[in-house]
Write a structure and sequence with these properties.
Layout lengths: L1 H13 L34 E4 L2 E4 L1 H4 L8 H5 L5 E4 L2 E4 L2 E7 L8 H10 L5 E7 L11 E7 L8 E12 L3 E12 L3 E25 L5 E3 L2 E23 L2 E22 L1 E21 L4 E22 L2 E27 L2 E21 L13 E20 L3 E13 L4 E16 L2 E12 L10 E3 L5 E4 L7 E12 L3 E11 L2 E7 L6 E7 L2 E15 L3 E16 L7 E19 L3 E11 L2 E3 L2 E3 L2 E12 L4 E8 L10 E4 L2 E7 L4 E10 L17
Parallel strand pairs: 5-7, 23-27
Antiparallel strand pairs: 1-2, 2-6, 3-4, 4-5, 6-7, 8-9, 8-38, 9-10, 10-11, 10-12, 10-37, 12-13, 13-14, 14-15, 15-16, 16-17, 17-18, 18-19, 19-20, 20-21, 21-24, 22-23, 24-25, 25-28, 26-27, 28-29, 29-30, 30-31, 31-34, 32-33, 34-35, 35-38, 36-37
């Protein structure tokens, strides 16, 4: 950490005339609040952001021009206010929905991220940021709309891009990608194929004291080593046909195929050997129809299947576990939507529509004897068929009061029906924008949202993490959480951004760890807290030194309160204030040839997640970017987490709970190459929402 602070001090001394300004997942089962902070860069005189109809519209090509960014996912992370939280995107500390060309997707977070990482950043024309999306977008809460470049002109054209990326952490990983785009007068089509493969290596040292109800305290120190390998194929095929002016038929298919296996060994108070194999496949098809009179209609189908096996041999004191488990999650989901938008003149507009979604979750989990193959009796075996339905109606209006003031208001009502829940809720949304002068923007927003639990998290099932000491429990009674947020944003001179927000989440849910008082067992389980409250301030300050340095500073301060009056036998009401700072510097070494160096770093103070304490952390990254062949070719060399300080070790020292997990941290070296041909201007397609899959 001292090296990180020293580096930033040296940068500050060298820039005396200037104003002073993510991690790998903690654990796939723990929600981290580790942030990769938002970044923004201003270059030239043209504004990089403007306000229109309640949106902040960013010029993405200019925003990422000097950054080592090669895919849509990394491009989104450069937007002001955007952060990365445990592998998913957040905006102003809250969850955000990413859509493509105004089309909402039906993918899980992991699958959506995979798709975004497979899309070249050069295909993005702009990004529209809304802190409270109007109901007509079929999204509640914050939204980022990625708008893609279309093929230019009426003359048919064929363009493409080839990409390869090699990464070396403890082990190697490689990604290859090919994108093709055909654009004609009435017909256009695009194709994308991506292949990622590699190996991973993780170490976890657990330091724990486990207190049982008889007051006996047992040390549970273990050393866990995990090696894994994965292969991922991603395919996307889309087509648009312009029937007549403002009348278009669109089709898109997304497919993802992943297989992987890992082997985990645990030594210490517990000894175990675990071998896991998994295969995931996703198929998503969507049809959209747009008419000249404002009517839009469409249908979408998603099929997801994730079978896996686990062979576990574990010994803890006199207790032994020896089994072969077989589990599978299979989701069939349909979505139908109909909407109408009308411009009434004199700055008035109205919109209304309906969305119906139905899904069936077929899941099972069985445990067998590893040698005889006989089915083991017990409560851990599970087979379920769970149906879920959502019906949504919405209506809204927008009004422009000249060039300076605009208002967008909507109200949605939604029914959520499952075997456990059957509820109706109202979701109001308001966006008010005021532009007193060119380049200065005030925006006030209010939003309400409901977040639904993952499908597997609601299954009445028990599985094992690492070895027999750690169990993952499902919760059939897990509630959706409802979030309310108010936000005030001010953009000064089209580049400086100041944001204040307040949010409150009822029935906030996250997966937590709990040491059982009945036996030597730690339980990972999704639970609903009473509430979560946040008050936050954020400042983004970009600056330049002539033509050789472009920098930006992001500062965030957050007051965070999390309360649960029914958390096992240890209720809590925890409050903390924490801060984060991020600085990005782009040095232009040469214009011809085009060579740039990018150095970025962040620091964050102590934070919390439920009863977890998250220590302070920080990291420094560096990259060299070389553009040649008249802009057609790009070579990037990079080193992430130079000082190996980016990973944090969460700990619990609360009541009878005493656990510290020390996760391994490795610096990463990488090299990537991109080549464009045919004047490649890419077209973006919407991703599939897989946020609730395994």
């Amino acid at each position: 950490m001292k090296r990180i602070y020293l580096l930033f001090t040296m940068i500050g001394i060298g820039l005396t005339h200037l104003c002073a300004q993510s991690q790998d997942s903690l654990d796939i089962y723990i929600d981290s609040i580790y942030h990769k902070l938002p970044e923004v860069m201003i270059k030239g005189e043209r504004p990089i952001v403007k306000a229109t109809q309640g949106k902040l519209v960013y010029d993405i090509p200019r925003l990422i021009n000097d950054l080592p960014v090669d895919n849509a996912y990394d491009a989104i992370k450069e937007l002001p206010g955007v952060a990365e939280m445990n592998g998913s995107i957040t905006l102003a500390g809250q969850g955000v929905t990413v859509v493509i060309d105004d089309k909402v997707t039906t993918m899980s977070t992991e699958q959506l991220n995979t798709l975004l990482k497979s899309i070249p950043s050069s295909r993005i024309e702009k990004a529209e940021v809304m802190y409270s999306a109007p109901a007509r977008y079929q999204v509640r809460g914050a939204m980022i709309n990625i708008c893609l470049k279309q093929g230019g002109g009426n003359a048919p054209s064929f363009q493409g891009e080839l990409f390869s990326d090699y990464r070396q952490k403890h082990y190697e990983a490689l990604t290859e990608r090919a994108s093709l785009l055909y654009s004609g007068n009435k017909f256009s089509a695009d194709f994308l194929y991506s292949y990622g493969h590699g190996r991973n290596y993780f170490l976890t040292d657990k330091e724990a004291l486990h207190t049982l109800s008889d007051s006996h305290v047992y040390p549970m120190n273990t050393h866990e080593m995990q090696r894994s390998r994965h292969n991922t194929h991603s395919v996307r095929l889309g087509a648009d046909y312009l029937i007549a002016e403002e009348q278009q038929l669109s089709f898109v298919y997304n497919g993802t195929f992943t297989n992987g296996h890992n082997r985990t060994t645990v030594e210490g108070a517990q000894t175990s050997n675990t071998q896991t194999r998994s295969t995931d496949q996703l198929h998503n098809g969507r049809v959209d129809y747009r008419t000249p009179f404002g009517l839009k209609a469409g249908a979408e189908f998603t099929f997801y299947e994730s079978p896996s096996t686990q062979l576990l041999h574990s010994r803890l004191n006199d207790d032994e576990l020896d089994f072969l488990s077989d589990d599978c999650q299979r989701i069939n989901r349909w979505k139908f939507f109909l909407s109408e938008e009308q411009n009434l003149g004199k700055g008035w507009g109205i919109n209304y529509g309906a969305v119906y979604t139905t899904s069936i979750d077929h899941s099972h989990q069985y445990y067998y004897h590893p040698e005889s193959g006989e089915l083991l009796s017990g409560n851990n075996n599970m087979k379920s068929r769970r149906r879920e339905q959502t019906l949504n109606f919405y209506a809204g209006f927008n009004k422009s009061f000249g060039d300076k003031l605009s208002l967008d208001v909507s109200l949605a009502t939604e029914q959520f029906h499952t075997p456990v829940w059957n509820e109706w809720n109202l979701y109001p949304t308001l966006n008010l924008s005021y532009v007193p002068s060119a380049g200065n923007i005030w925006q006030l927003s209010f939003s309400s949202d409901k977040n639904y639990p993952d499908y597997w998290a609601t299954q009445d099932a028990i599985s094992y993490l690492g070895g027999g000491y750690s169990e993952i429990h499902g919760n059939p009674f897990l509630k959706p959480n409802i979030d309310y947020q108010a936000q005030l944003t001010y953009v000064l001179k089209s580049k400086y951004m100041f944001t204040a927000w307040y949010s409150q989440t009822k029935d906030y849910s996250t997966q937590t760890l709990y040491q059982s008082p009945d036996r030597l067992l730690e339980i990972y389980k999704y639970l609903n807290f009473d509430k979560k409250q946040q008050i936050g301030l954020q400042t983004v300050i970009p600056f330049k030194v002539k033509e050789w340095l472009s920098s930006r500073i992001t500062l965030i301060g957050v007051y965070d309160r999390q309360k649960d009056s029914d958390f096992w036998d240890i209720p809590f009401d925890r409050k903390i204030c924490y801060g984060m700072a991020h600085m990005n510097n782009t040095f232009t070494l040469s214009g011809k040839p085009d060579i740039k160096i990018i150095i970025s770093g962040m620091v964050r103070s102590k934070a919390q997640q439920g009863i977890y304490d998250l220590p302070a952390s920080g990291n420094v990254d560096a990259a060299i970017k070389y553009t040649f062949a008249k802009g057609k070719a790009l070579l990037t060399l990079r080193c992430n987490d130079i000082f190996e300080t980016g990973q944090i070790s969460p700990r619990i020292h609360f009541a009878t709970q005493n656990v510290t997990n020390n996760y391994s941290c490795f610096r990463e070296f990488g090299v990537s190459f991109t080549y464009k041909f045919g004047g490649y201007k890419e077209k973006q397609r919407e991703a599939v929402d897989t946020s609730r899959f395994k």
